[in-house]
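Entry type: protein chain
Record version: 2
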Amino acid sequence: MSKTAPRRRVATYNIHKGVRGTGPAKRLEIHALKGGVAHLDADLVCLQEVRAHHHGDARRFHRHWPNRPQADFLAPDGYEVAYRSNAFTRGGEHGNALLSRFPLLDVAHRDVSDHRLEQRGLLHATVDWAGAPLHVLVLHLGLFHGSRVRQVDALGDYLQEKVPAGERLLVAGDFNDWREQLDPAMQGLDLRRAGMARTFPARAPLFALDRVYLRGLSALGSEVPRGAPWVRMSDHLPLLVELEAQ
């Protein structure tokens, strides 16, 4: 591995739609999240549960609700944004996003919903990493183990179809894998996990639900920001990984 190989930082973060709490205690956290994303100083920020819009929350927080989609609002100056909706509800829609310090070459989406009660999808963005393509897939897997297994199978089908075998690949997101059962299936796709840091629940993390898997890249280290204000902004903590090209 070359000592001069470029190093980058990637973050994955489930932002819980930019709000916390329920009923009268519901509060808007999207402005704090904007500062949190900037503080991460990651070259690639993979986000889940990102609102495109929501009429009810926009009315409730009308004085402070952003006047643009959350992905665009959260992006630091100079970052490019890729977003695709996964779930369409009565009040609005939400999905996955990538905020990239590097140019986006292409953006695609694949529906991987396993049943009608959970709408799930893959966001696929190709970025320019030091003159070579890097494929970044952002996902949020289902709540049931059988669904997650089938969604990893769908991921494998998608990679075989859309991602050339010799090109670098990064898959990040909320895997909802409470019992640590998905690593063998991901290894079967030639994807290696970058660390095992606990990120959920934010106040007292017990589970490593938020993950980064790599092909053609090496993980030099990982970290999870803790304490205030992170415990307020989402029920997940962000995961940061430092990367180096092989």
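Comment: Helices lie at 30-40, 55-60, 70-74, 145-162, 183-188, 230-233.
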